[in-house]
Amino acid sequence: MSSGTFSSPFFVRRAAHIVQEIASPADAIDFLNEWPEDGRDRIYEAALTACFDAYNRRIPASAARKTFFRFGEQVAILEDATSAMQWLAACMSGSGKAQV
């Protein structure tokens, strides 16, 4: 496994009907950079720092994954992988063309 990816991805809720896969420190950093400023606390800062450290290979990706996962638990954004995969499969089953 590359130190640039997580051993297993997980899913977080970005908005009411948007689920995002987090598979690497880079994915986590992108997600955290868009987090509202008024919701940035010590656990947020710890997750962001850990993800940057893993991205720069100063700590193992597993440590960053664990820290981000704790952040996700605290702010209740984690999605069940089975539910997320079913939702993604349903979205990808269409032709991609607008129905008129």
Given the C-alpha coordinates, what overall shape results?
A: globular
Q: Give, in order, the helices and strands.
A: EEHHHEH
Question: How many strand segments?
Answer: 3
Biggest sheet record:
3 strands, antiparallel
Give the helix proportion (percent range).
Answer: 40-55%
What low-confidence regions span 5 or more consecutive residues with pLDDT below 50? none
Number of helices: 4
Distance between the termini: 46 Å
Helices and strands in order:
Elements: E1 10-15, E2 18-22, H1 25-33, H2 42-55, H3 61-74, E3 78-79, H4 81-92
Antiparallel strand pairs: 1-2, 1-3
Helix pairs in contact: 1-2, 2-3
Describe the structure.
This protein has a 3-stranded antiparallel sheet. The mean pLDDT is 85. Helices cover 49% and strands 13% of the residues. The protein contains 4 helices and 3 strands. The protein is an alpha+beta fold and 100 residues long.
Describe the structure concisely:
By secondary structure, the chain is of the alpha+beta class. The chain has helices at residues 25-33, 42-55, 61-74, 81-92, and strands at 10-15, 18-22, 78-79.
Keywords for this entry:
single chain; 100 residues; alpha+beta; 3-stranded antiparallel β-sheet; 4 helices; 3 strands; 49% helix; globular
